Amino acid sequence: MSETWLVIGLGNPGPTYAGNRHNVGAMVVDELATRTRSPLRSHKARAAAAQVRIGTGAGGVPGPSAVIAVPSSFMNESGGPVKALMGFFSVEPDRLVVVHDELDIPAGDVRLKLGGGEGGHNGLRSISKSLGTRDYLRVRVGIGRPPGRQDPADFVLKDFSPTERKELPFLLGDAADAVEMLVSHGLLDTQQKFHSA
């Protein structure tokens, strides 16, 4: 069995969607690619991916081996590429980390969990259906609820506001830190750090 982690950042493909709140998961994986100086390259599993060492372990040694990837399918078809990547790199569900936007978490907060429901998130629903399990790790990046009566579906497909964009580098940095700590130190320690913030 592989010791490799698979970190998936969810989003929709193409420049039209690149700045959308719904694409914040893909933005976090881009941040990890920048940190590891490993550009994402097209993979036959309908994704852009890179093999990296993520974070740092005890004594400053390079962290665990991981594949970071963004599906090149639309959000609601994320499951196919994720399952194909897991098969290609021999990754089990307990080493799958999915980074995604979360309406039910205040904007700017990062939370982590294992398993649970999909909360109406089409990307998560597609992954759970393709894998036949919900028992994979999630790094949930808070985007907050839409103002007034705006439809949540419209809200997530809009770009971050100018005010939010000023804070976005900090949010992406926190979420990338959470992924690094999760694969290096485990879920409980990472939850203690990020949930008490």
What does this molecule look like?
It is a single chain. The chain has 197 residues and is of the alpha/beta class. It has one domain (5-195): Peptidyl-tRNA hydrolase (Rossmann fold, 3-Layer(aba) Sandwich), CATH 3.40.50. Helices cover 36% and strands 20% of the residues. It has six helices and seven strands, in the order βαβββαββαβααα. It has helices spanning 24-35, 79-89, 122-131, 152-156, 162-185, 187-195, and strands at residues 5-9, 41-43, 47-53, 65-71, 96-102, 110-114, 137-142. Strands 2-3-4-1-5-7-6 form a seven-stranded mixed sheet, with helices on both faces. Strand 2 and strand 3 form a beta hairpin. Helix 1 (24-35) crosses helix 5.
Secondary structure layout:
Layout: E1 5-9, H1 24-35, E2 41-43, E3 47-53, E4 65-71, H2 79-89, E5 96-102, E6 110-114, H3 122-131, E7 137-142, H4 152-156, H5 162-185, H6 187-195
Parallel strand pairs: 1-4, 1-5, 5-7
Antiparallel strand pairs: 2-3, 3-4, 6-7
Quick recap:
With 197 residues, the chain is an alpha/beta fold.
List keywords for this structure.
single chain, 197 residues, alpha/beta, Rossmann fold, 7-stranded mixed beta sheet, 6 helices, 7 strands, 20% strand, globular
CATH architecture: 3-Layer(aba) Sandwich
What characterizes the major β-sheet? 7 strands, mixed
* Mean pLDDT over the residues: 94
State the CATH class: Alpha Beta
Q: How many helices does DSSP assign?
A: 6
Strand order, sheet with most strands: 2-3-4-1-5-7-6
Site (Stabilizes the basic form of H active site to accept a proton): 101
Binding site for tRNA: 17, 74, 76, 122
Subcellular location: Cytoplasm
GO cellular component, one term: cytoplasm
